[in-house]
Amino acid sequence: MSENRELEGLVAIVTGAARNIGRAIALDLARGGAAVVVNAVASADAAAETARLIESQGGKAIVHLADVTKPEDAEGLMQAAEKAFGGIDILVNNAAIRRETPFAEMDYARWREVMAVILDGAYICAHASIVNIGGMSAHSGSKERAHVMTAKAGLTGLTRALAQDLSPEGITANCVVPGLIDTARGHSAKGEPEHHKRAGTLVGRRGTPEEVAALVRYLCGPQARYITGQTIHANGGAYMSP
Fold first, then answer.
1. What's the CA gap between 77 and 188, in Å, rounded?
2. pLDDT band at 99 (very low <50, low <70, confident <90, very high)
3. Rounded-to-integer distance, Cα 68 and Cα 151, Å
């Protein structure tokens, strides 16, 4: 584990932590000293592997499967953190569904499915120091993602509202927006999203989950207590790329 243990004694919940960016965030928070509750809705084996990786590096982790769109599941997730580690200090709302559906084919059920996980889930779980994970397409635009873009854009507003309402309790709320990150896209038969295929970066490469995780870890640490209500982009300069 890292010698820099700035999160020692803290407890973190990371939703959608079975793989990709969520796993990287869980691992990096554990390297900082936090005990981690690894959440997934159904990917039990992958979530268990995330916890195993944390423990193999000397960290503490448990797995708790929960559907964050359901208030009773979210409450159970919070209770699991309190039972295992005595409280909750950090909440990373990473759980998301990133469908690509032409708007003309998007029925209300598909709209609500995405909205419930990304936006409702973040609202339901918001009871700790908070980092919401946004999405680049909510700021740059993209075809076939009206539901995802709307939900992710809503996270920006929710982040600002939480920063206002929770600041008297000493709780910060920020939004990290990854862009053009090299992750497995197992949820889509199309593979990489179309807007990723068309975009480039100033640094000449795609980002890694670990680079997003490093920013999340910083925002959860003691040096970031003066940062709240912010939306911070990690996209290698994609917005400025020709």
1. 27
2. confident
3. 15
| Beta carbons of 13 and 89 less than 8 angstroms apart | no
Residues 43, 21 contacting (CB under 8 angstroms): no
Q: Check residue 140 and give its pLDDT.
A: 82
User: Is 189 in contact with 178 (CB distance < 8 Å)?
Assistant: no
Q: Which among 170, 165, 172, 177 has a CA at the least distance from the CA of 229? A: 172
List, in order of start, the domains of the chain with CATH numbers: 11-235 (3.40.50.720)
pLDDT by residue (tens digit) across 159-183? 999 999 999 999 999 999 999 999 8
Q: State how beta strands 129-133 and 11-14 pair.
A: unpaired
